[in-house]
Prior knowledge:
By secondary structure, the protein is an all-beta fold.
Amino acid sequence: xxxxxxxxxxxxxxxxxxxxxxxxxxxxxxxxxxxxxxxxxxxxxxxxxxxxxxxxxxxxxxxxxxxxxxxxxxxxxxxxxxxxxxxxxxxxxxxxxxxxxxxxxxxxxxxxxxxxxxxxxxxxxxxxxxxxxxxxxxx
Length: 139
């Protein structure tokens, strides 16, 4: 007897059985020291997948969408499935980001790819809604 025909089984487009799905949230920015040349930001990655994400994932901050990378930190702890990871504290020269919106991306190696395969690679970025450090001249 031949095997079952599963062509119309309804599982097309379903997520794989085990997967990562990384996202990131900007928790806040601090502009009080922009005039003195320093900008601070906090963010937290999240793993919406069902497999633990490894430590050592790069998290980048760019000067605007598609802008230059200003700073990169790596996670120091694994992120369990369905949980948020550690809070990351970014500090860098305000002039590097002056008058642009901070854009943060988890699992960004800086060349358009990540370290881990994900179910959805399009949700790894968060954008702060406002331009920051408007009183600092870039350059």
